[in-house]
Specification:
Layout lengths: L1 E3 L5 E4 L2 H4 L2 E6 L4 E6 L5 E8 L2 E7 L5 E7 L8 E5 L5 E2 L11 E7 L1 H4 L3 E8 L2 E6 L15 E6 L6 E5 L4 E5 L8 E4 L10 E2 L5 E6 L2 E6 L4 E7 L23 E5 L4 E6 L4 E7 L4 E6 L4 E6 L5 E5 L2
Antiparallel strand pairs: 1-2, 2-3, 3-4, 5-6, 6-7, 7-8, 8-9, 10-11, 11-12, 13-14, 14-15, 15-16, 17-18, 18-19, 19-20, 21-22, 22-23, 24-25, 25-26
Length: 309
Amino acid sequence: MLITDQGRQIAVSNLGWVDHGSLWRFDAASSRAGHVRLSDAKHLALHDMGRDEFAAVHHFDGSRVEITAHSFASPADVLRRVIVTGWAPKVDDGLAPWPSAISHFVAWLNDRATGAAGYYLISVTGVDAVIARLDWFNAGSYDLDYQSVIAVREVPETGELVFGVQRSSHLVVAPPAHSGAVRRVDLSGGHGNAVPYMRANAPEVWAVDYDTLVRLDRRTWTVTGTIRLQDAPPGTRMFAGDLWMPPDEDFAVIPRPGCADIAIIDPDTLTLARTVQTGRQPLVAVVLDGGRVIARDWKTGDLLRADLS
């Protein structure tokens, strides 16, 4: 994932197989990229928190999880921290409290941490944090060696939680506070790593299901449109990269590593508006203020550049 501050001057990312516990950061002012070491985690999952802040979920070996909050301007400084080593997460009271609006994260904890290995929802608000085991992610429904829970997003109108599952072709929708049964919402059959994107300017959820962008109405959970992102010869397929949209959501950016470019999607018509060549195999990409495009190569994490203008 690649995310930016509100002014789209700074972008941060973590490709776990390249960066591990370090943050990759690009500064438009200097036009340079570099790394900031945050921990010895195996990888980080980044979340845009608004107010020019982001959170990093530090995934270790399963015996503990840490969640830290940082500013884009000074990411080496920890603003907030939650440490999870069992059923009673601890909010670091020596740092600032978390926002009053609840924040949700997902992580895997092993038997040493909880006595019940599995994926957990970690919910944080103010000075409080709680965890809940995601019992729907079990061996009867998923391949626990092959799949994982990779993301969670909250539906602003209802408080429902929407989970993405690795190598799955559905999203999982859970009622607020786990007050009822979960439902599985089918995508396009691509069995990709679908991360739900909650649109701010429309009651929609978008997800990239391997090579297809799927648009859903989050009031009815019905599919309202799809677009195949990469045409391929018969018998071959290539996945698309991570979805990104600017704050006004007037276009969507989706890298296409098999085409060495990024696709610009019209959100109203769900059609391909144009492509921008980056070279190599872009996996994540954003458009900075002024139309500058930056992306990262899938295998190496190298910086790729282009221009939208």
